[in-house]
Task: inverse folding
């Protein structure tokens, strides 16, 4: 089974992907996380995209599409993908379609998490992630477990694009690009809308029900 998860910044794509990966043994392909690793490791690509990422701009399709092929072509992940943050525009969706055909795979489900800008602002302002294991937390909604040696406060980091004005810009970019994408997957009868404004566990329960119904 291959899934896509859509949603604006702070919708909970990473949080719900983490849940889906653990429950259904899938592989989370987060383009944002891969690109942030490149920046952190100061690779040639990382140096090139650092300021674009921090300013909340999208990275060139050519670069992201190339990254994706490296994973889609890997037999280890075949039919185990949850695409988080990709595709982000219609050109990327067409590229994904062609790649999946090339490697004899297909998308089985597209989850669309909807969340308003007001909620996004609060979630983004409270977000941090553990620099050791990558788990995502929130100062208001989802604090790390006490006495955890891994996710201690000294290891928690904020993202450089998680300021309020950049979050608003990312939200607007998302809104601008998504209509044709939503139509693309709706026409293929793959799209399921999920209200992303409830608690993390309520949303996970709904997602489980949807996945079980298509797997069953
Ligand atoms: P990316 O990393 O994909 O960021 P994003 O799409 O802006 O989404 P976020 O990661 O901010 O939010 P999320 O939905 O994962 O929410 P999370 O689960 O963390 O992309 C970053 C950048 O990379 C882009 O701007 C671009 O530069 C580049 N890029 C990436 N992909 C690209 C592509 N395909 N093409 C071109 N460029 C690309 O949750 C947020 C917070 O809320 C957390 O603190 C969490 O604990 C909390 N939370 C989650 N769910 C709930 C809930 N239900 N209730 C309360 N709190 C919650
Ligand atoms: Mg994310």
Result:
């Amino acid at each position: 089974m291959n899934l896509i998860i859509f949603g604006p910044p702070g919708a909970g794509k990473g949080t719900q992907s983490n849940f889906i990966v653990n429950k259904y043994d899938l592989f989370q392909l987060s383009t944002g996380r891969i690109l942030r690793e490149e920046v952190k490791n100061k690779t040639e690509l990382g140096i090139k995209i650092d300021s674009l990422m921090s300013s909340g701009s999208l990275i060139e399709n050519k670069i992201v599409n190339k990254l994706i092929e490296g994973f889609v072509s890997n037999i280890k992940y075949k039919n185990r993908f949850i695409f988080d943050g990709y595709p982000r525009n219609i050109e990327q969706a067409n590229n994904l379609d062609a790649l999946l055909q090339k490697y004899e795979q297909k998308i089985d489900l597209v989850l669309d998490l909807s969340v308003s800008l007001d909620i996004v602002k609060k979630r983004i302002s409270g977000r941090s992630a553990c620099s050791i294991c990558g788990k995502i937390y929130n100062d208001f909604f989802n604090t790390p477990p006490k006495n955890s040696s891994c996710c201690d406060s000294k290891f928690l980091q904020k993202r450089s694009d998680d300021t309020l004005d950049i979050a608003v810009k990312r939200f607007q970019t998302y809104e601008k690009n998504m209509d044709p994408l939503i139509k693309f997957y709706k026409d293929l009868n793959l799209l399921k809308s999920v209200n992303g404004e409830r608690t993390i566990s309520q949303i996970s329960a709904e997602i489980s029900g949807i996945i079980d119904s298509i797997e069953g």
About this structure: The chain has a mean pLDDT of 95. Residues 87 and 96 are 7 Å apart (CA to CA). The longest strand covers residues 109-114.
